[in-house]
Design brief:
Length: 367
């Protein structure tokens, strides 16, 4: 016979208290609200300055002038480069990626993602040559490609002198610099080189990450900006706003019409003016004819990519961030050297959000 132990009254009271404690703890775990988390994004270093500004604006709007804040009112954005940002979407905690290299519509659909433009601007060439100021040096696409191919090695090369008859060029080797990480800026730059040089196109092509034939690399826009600033007689490619803020000397570039253009927002806008935005293609823009005579040849569009499987609450917070950016952050974008998204395009994106991301409410901050 199995003898069943009999608990004393004091033991029974202790057991009941322990059971009650376990049940209360379990109920609390089930009923407690989820831990507050920030919006998490990663990607473009090109757009990092304006995304960081919009992130501060978002938190300020959520606090509404008060002292209280919450982690889920913040944005944690990591400028790891366009390619790495898209790769981060494989991590379920990442809410959005920012990329200067838009994904093809078929890939966006296959992965169950949504893509839309958030800001525009330009990639410029920096030449750190003593005594030569911003815009004074002129370069063409073919000569620039030959510099990065290693065929033009010295600043006094006849090919550069022919474009700059009135500029005193040093007899010094060209220090070639480039991005080391996967970057939309690299895609824009190598697309320009490929359009300018059949040899470059055949040997290296255009991509976010390539095997460079020569030169030294650095990670991120900020890292490359510091590198070129510290390296005499160097050449590199960078985001326009960062170049202006750092006081780096940029070159004028010859565009497809044969005109030498100084980089500035009006020239970027001329290069972007004929883009045809198609929501059905994830706003993957096709370049039209444009105002070629005034267009800067390396205009850039940064896109946000949002997975559709993150849950409606998380998706809405990302859309809140960009709704606020579009409605109140255009002047800030312009001040940093970017081209803001037009109100007409914003309206089309809001319709797209409703159809593809379940955004039913009017633009504003979600609860």
């Amino acid at each position: 016979m199995i003898k069943i132990p009999v608990l004393s009254r004091s033991e029974w009271r202790a057991t009941k208290a322990a059971i009650a404690g376990v049940l209360c703890a379990a109920a609390f775990a089930l009923c407690a609200p989820a831990r507050a988390e920030p919006i998490r994004g990663a990607g473009s270093t090109f757009a990092a300055p304006i995304i960081n500004q919009w992130s501060r604006d978002y938190e300020a709007a959520r606090t509404d002038g008060g002292d209280f804040t919450s982690p889920d009112w913040r944005v944690d954005y990591e400028p790891v480069g366009s390619l790495a940002g898209v790769m981060r979407l494989a991590q379920p905690e990442t809410d959005f990626a920012a990329t200067d290299a838009p994904l093809p519509p078929a890939e966006i659909e296959r992965r169950g993602w949504t893509q839309f433009p958030i800001v525009m601007g330009g990639i410029v060439v920096v030449a750190n040559i003593e005594g030569i100021g911003a815009g004074q040096l002129r370069l063409s696409g073919p000569v620039l490609a030959d510099i990065y191919l290693g065929k033009v090695k010295n600043w006094s090369d006849p090919a550069i002198k022919a474009l700059n008859p009135e500029v005193e060029l040093p007899d010094a080797p060209i220090e070639v610099l480039h991005r080391q990480d996967g970057s939309g800026s690299t895609l824009s730059f190598t697309t320009f080189l490929s359009a300018s040089s059949a040899e470059w196109k055949e040997k290296h092509g255009a991509d976010t990450l390539i095997e460079w034939p020569l030169g030294r690399g650095e990670k991120g826009t900020g890292g490359l900006a510091a590198f070129v600033a510290a390296t005499a007689n160097s050449i590199a490619y960078l985001e326009y706003g960062q170049v202006v803020r750092a006081g780096l000397p940029f070159a004028s570039l010859q565009n497809a019409a044969g005109a030498f253009i100084r980089p500035e927002p009006a020239a970027f806008q001329a290069g972007l003016g004929a883009l045809e935005w198609d929501a059905a293609r994830g706003f993957h823009a096709e370049q039209g004819a444009g105002d070629a005579s005034q267009a800067w040849p390396m205009a850039v569009v940064t896109y946000a990519i949002v997975p559709r499987d993150r849950g409606q609450g998380r998706i809405n917070r990302v859309l809140d961030l960009f709704s606020l950016a579009f409605s109140q952050g255009a002047d800030e974008a312009s001040a940093l050297g970017y081209i803001p998204v037009s109100p007409e395009l914003v309206g089309r994106m809001e319709t797209y959000w409703a159809a593809s991301l379940g955004r039913k409410a009017a633009p504003g901050l979600s609860n």
